[in-house]
Amino acid sequence: MSGHGDPIPMTSRACGALSGEAHVPGDKSISHRSLILGAMAVGETKVSGLLEGQDVLDTGRAMQAFGAGVINHGGGNWSVHGVGVGGFAEPDQVIDCGNSGTGVRLIMGAMATSPITATFTGDASLNGRPMGRITDPLALFGTQSYGRKNGRLPMTIVGAQDAAPVRYTVPMPSAQVKSAVLLAGLNAAGETVVIEKEATRDHSERMLTGFGANLSVEDTSEGRVITLQGQPELKPQTITVPRDPSSAAFPVCAGIVAQGSEVLVPGIGLNPTRAGLFTTLQEMGADLTFENMREEGGEPVADLRAKFSDNMKGIEVPPERAASMIDEYPVLSVVAAFATGKTVMRGVKELRVKESDRIDAMARGLEACGVTIEEDEDTFIVHGMGAGGVPGGGTCATHLDHRIAMSFMVLGLGTEKPVHIDDGGPIATSFPIFEDLMRDLGANITRD
Ligand code: S3P
């Protein structure tokens, strides 16, 4: 869907202790990939725990438009009837990926080496995001793209006929770019090689291997070298989607900043390429523990217990950790406001090309709530005011960005005065049960 309807202004207020268990939805990255890889396998892939957020629903609709069968059996159980690598049909409608950069970029990769044409669009946020980072490597396969100025959507992609495999070094740390090239490589005869200088989330590699692709990963002086043999027959899978660490971040951080709280967030995937926030929170002195560490579906999983933490210190977040917590910087900047001293986040310029310019969005909202910020293109510094020391009282613009909206709702749970947002509608893209889940913990989050 390319709009969110009327804005939904919301307010969050401190109301004492949060308590209880927060069962967050399925992982967004893995949900997108389950539908896309399911559509590229031959036969029926069964998925349980799928995130039923708008981003993922848009990807499901897109897979149907390319000829796959996508069926909702209820209760988070879905099945995908795949058409095989190279089996995509040409869609007879524009593919609307709504708010989702992951959706559009991975789908462009998946169709780029089939001799079909498709036109992609999205909402105002997505149509402002750079697609050149995808179309540049896809051009090496012979794929053509016709977008707006500066490589923006709406954009038409003409898939390559008889695509040649490529060797590509990803110029920025981006799992979306890496994944788009790997998905395109599936229908190119021969060996496609993708090199990333910094490791990013590795769900595509793990899942491609699970679906039966021949893929190897080697750590070399050049970086992580991923080699994929083209034109495999992907075998349908039964997938249980783990709960999303990026969504878990919100109730975890709420437990840390709301006075007297103790919150348990069970069954969270702790893939090291995703878990950087939790390490950072512990380094700041947050009372966060991992319980019942186990392995589920090949991924490390734990129950996270977060308690109100009134003795946190600002830290310098190691820049090499950025990729493993890239979506969590907005909520980290909220926690940092309740620590004492500066929290310094360097090497974070990718935040400027997410659903919004996340450094700018958080900086302006935190300032409106009385917090001092420093920033440059690649750096974000929050001057902490200590637990109980953040005034609040501001109205924060969310810029069609779900994580900005949820971060400011967490902020208001620890500030002196309420925190308002102009639009909580985008929360439904990744965390449709956020308001209910937070209220069940005892949070005072209301629609105005
Ligand atoms: C994602 C990769 C990241 C992340 C996004 C999900 C993915 O984006 O921010 O929310 O599923 O591959 P980039 O690849 O642009 O860093």
TrEMBL record:
Pfam family, one: EPSP_synthase
Protein's recorded name: 3-phosphoshikimate 1-carboxyvinyltransferase
Residue span(s) of domain Enolpyruvate transferase: 16-436
Cleaved signal peptide residues: none
Reported function: Catalyzes the transfer of the enolpyruvyl moiety of phosphoenolpyruvate (PEP) to the 5-hydroxyl of shikimate-3-phosphate (S3P) to produce enolpyruvyl shikimate-3-phosphate and inorganic phosphate.
Catalysed reactions, as listed in the record: 3-phosphoshikimate + phosphoenolpyruvate = 5-O-(1-carboxyvinyl)-3-phosphoshikimate + phosphate
NCBIfam families xref list: aroA (TIGR01356)
Record EC number: 2.5.1.19
A Gene Ontology term for the protein's cellular component: cytoplasm
Pathway: Metabolic intermediate biosynthesis; chorismate biosynthesis; chorismate from D-erythrose 4-phosphate and phosphoenolpyruvate: step 6/7
Cell location: Cytoplasm
Keywords, comma-separated and alphabetical: Amino-acid biosynthesis, Aromatic amino acid biosynthesis, Cytoplasm, Transferase
GO BP term, example: chorismate biosynthetic process
Keyword Ligase: no
Primary localization class, coarse: cytoplasm
Keyword Transferase: yes
Source organism of the structure: Litoreibacter albidus
Gene3D superfamilies assigned to the protein according to its UniProt record, in alphabetical order: Enolpyruvate transferase domain
Family to which the UniProt record says this protein belongs: Belongs to the EPSP synthase family.
MF terms in GO: 3-phosphoshikimate 1-carboxyvinyltransferase activity
